[in-house]
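Example record

The entry below shows one chain as it appears in the dataset: sequence first, then structure tokens.
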Amino acid sequence: MDKIEVYCLNYNNPERNKSMTERFERLDISCNFYHGVGKDDQRFEQIPINEPYSIMYGHLDMIYHFYHHTDKPYGIFCEDDILIHKDFKQYLPKIMDDFQTLNLDVLLLGYLVTCNINHEMNLKVNNENNEDFSYKYYNVSNDIWGAQMYILSRENAKRLLDKYAIGYLEQVIQDSSLTPFSADHSITKDGKRALLYPLLVIEDGMKNYDHFGQKFFHYQCYINNYVEGSHI
């Protein structure tokens, strides 16, 4: 863990902060909690706030802290409504070695998927792992969503900040053809990208959604990927 800094986005939710703090303590992982971005943030003085914008700025602020206030080569960033595999810390050294070998910019450890990913899908395996490692790496298709947890290289962190942190939202408002100002449209899909499967991190299935389709989709993601006794 000496090469990795870990961050969790937690906006105005003490209950989730408590549960995530306990989760990382059980994993013996030190995590930086970020309080998020509210309507009083100066970046919303001229722009009406909405949830995707707030979340995106929250992710960018965590990335900013990682890049400007640490000298670590890699950052792990997550949201606060997740369950994490109990052996996460033990798997991480192998994953980081593969991250370097594959020369990745971003690796998704947690995302939204309702079906099993396999070799026959339109997601090609990036490389073959050692036989004793049960996880595989696949390319990230444009219909994979979610920024539940991901790894960034230091170099990619700077590229993302240069591209999205200042002025990009204003450009999007003027030009809807640009990549939306949303974490799982941009941060998780910018640069050389891959996902890890099976998932090491899943949504906890506790969040309520007003839209029935969203509620059903997120619940199916949870049901399809939850393994009793494996996630904490």
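Notes for this example: The chain has a mean pLDDT of 91. The domain at 4-225 is CATH 3.90.550 (Spore Coat Polysaccharide Biosynthesis Protein SpsA; Chain A).
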